Amino acid sequence: MKIRCSWCKDDDLLKDYHDNEWGKPVFDDQKLFELLMLEIFQAGLSWEIILRKRKSIIKAFDSFNLIKIANYDKKKITDLMINKGIIRNKLKILAAISNAKSLIKIQKMHKKFFNYINNLKLEILKARKGKKSITQTFILSKKISEILKNDGFKFIGPTIVDSFLMSSGFINGHDPKCYKYSKNLKW
Q1: Which one is catalytic: 17, 22, 72, 116?
Q2: Which among 81, 76, 82 is positioned nearest to 62, based on CA atoms?
Q3: Is 116 annotated as catalytic?
């Protein structure tokens, strides 16, 4: 029997997500935006709810196409607010639009969102080199969330960024006893 991260519980949907997707490095900006937005939609809810609504969320948000989302108008926002298949939180929906615009600006400056996040991670960890701390990942997440806020991102904070960094493979979030955990992974 495989030992997994404790958050998987005995739920087949969570196990499948854990085993096949969570923590694997993602380099595609559209997929990174999707993961970030799913973490934002999850705030205050369970991850199970997000996974069960995921297909509907992806469809409603045009497969997280940055250009389309950046150009959503009042009608589209109204359509999203009445869509029972998604998380109908107006602040989160507005954050998707704002965050798409911010990510497009980052792409213009840094070519890829992946490069931007990875460079932030490396700079912050380099500055902390030699400082051992069990809260190292939280400090990283806190600093990245502050920078993202300064760059115009909305509905963002250390907990959301921490979850995003783990889900997208920027940091190793697997429990040490999990079969997917490896001390040799280069994050």
Answers
A1: 17
A2: 76
A3: no
* pLDDT tens digit at each of 187 positions of the chain: 789 999 988 889 999 999 999 999 999 999 999 999 999 999 999 999 999 999 999 999 999 999 999 999 999 999 999 999 999 999 999 999 999 999 999 999 999 999 999 999 888 877 766 555 545 677 889 999 999 999 999 999 999 999 999 999 998 888 889 998 876 555 4
Active-site residue (options: 22, 47, 72, 116): 47
What's the token pair of residue 110?
């840094």
Tell me the three-class secondary structure of 117-173, residue by residue.
Answer: HHHHHHHHHHHCCCCCCCCHHHHHHHHHHHHHHHCCCCCCCHHHHHHHHHHCCCCCC
